[in-house]
Q: What sequence folds into this?
């Protein structure tokens, strides 16, 4: 019998997860299929009750913070981050975990292997920022959060400082951050296809011994942020790298098989 998997999100049409996972199933000659489900927030409970046939689920916006209440177990990483992006089966139980944070870290470390003691600026304070702040502070980085709405940045910093004692600051503006910035991560939706792209980082904050990571990706090009960073000599990382690594971790959890990296990477192009 065909094993069924899927992504739940709203909207879901733009998702590259079906192409990535179906390519992997095909390459490993597995009898499995990955579908996209457009699920509105008010339909999530019904969906979770009616779709027990799914052996694994990828969870995206706007369900990452709410899907946990319909699961039998949530592992510590997802609990600490406060978001589930992956549902997998353990016997009859449905469990939630988070592969965004480890997927993000793997992508960052390709560009910057040593993170400890370095300084990062995180742009944005939404769901994606949570996983990023959690991951970087765990690695011993000093993190400054800069967000359009300052109160949300304050809330995010407080949420993590209650769990452990990382070095998290909230900055009102770039001047306040000061000093050398080793890593800049954009977690805001600025740069999404079809959206306006205001200048996120003043040019003087880029330098050649720096990594600039944009979680946003465009199907055929790179965002303006990355274009500017690259022309200033910074190393850049595109959001597709994180998509790939979080997806490989999902695949391995669901199937117990090694994820075919190059097949999955090609599917994202
Ligand atoms: P996600 O779960 O993907 O992080 P989100 O929770 O909606 O999505 O968060 C979006 C982030 O992008 C927020 O930090 C938002 O800033 P606000 O908290 O001020 O709303 C940020 N954002 C969206 N549009 C922006 C823009 N034009 N300029 C700067 N920040 C923007």
A:
């Amino acid at each position: 019998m065909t094993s069924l998997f899927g992504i739940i999100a709203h909207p879901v049409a733009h998702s590259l997860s079906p192409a990535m996972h179906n390519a992997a199933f095909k390459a490993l000659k597995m009898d499995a299929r990955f579908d996209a489900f457009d699920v509105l927030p008010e339909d999530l409970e019904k969906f979770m009750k009616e779709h027990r046939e799914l052996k694994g689920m990828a969870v995206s916006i706007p369900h990452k913070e709410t899907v946990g209440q319909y699961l039998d177990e949530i592992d510590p990483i997802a609990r600490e981050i406060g978001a589930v992006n992956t549902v997998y089966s353990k016997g009859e139980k449905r469990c939630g975990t988070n592969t965004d944070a480890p997927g993000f870290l793997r992508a960052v470390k390709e560009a910057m292997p040593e993170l400890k003691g370095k300084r990062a600026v995180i742009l944005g304070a939404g769901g994606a920022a949570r996983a990023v702040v959690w991951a970087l502070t765990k690695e011993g980085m000093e993190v400054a959060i800069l967000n359009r709405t300052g109160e949300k940045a304050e809330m995010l910093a407080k949420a993590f400082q209650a769990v452990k004692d990382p070095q998290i600051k909230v900055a009102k503006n770039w001047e306040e951050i000061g000093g050398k910035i080793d890593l800049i991560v954009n977690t805001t939706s600025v740069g999404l296809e079809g959206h306006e792209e205001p200048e996120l980082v003043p040019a003087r904050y880029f330098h050649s011994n720096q990594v600039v990571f944009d979680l946003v990706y465009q199907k055929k090009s790179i965002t303006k942020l990355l274009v500017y960073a690259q022309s200033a000599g910074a190393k850049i990382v595109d959001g597709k790298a994180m998509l790939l690594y979080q997806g490989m971790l999902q695949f391995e959890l669901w199937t117990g098989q090694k994820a075919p990296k190059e097949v999955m990477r090609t599917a994202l192009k």
Remarks:
- The chain has a mean pLDDT of 94.
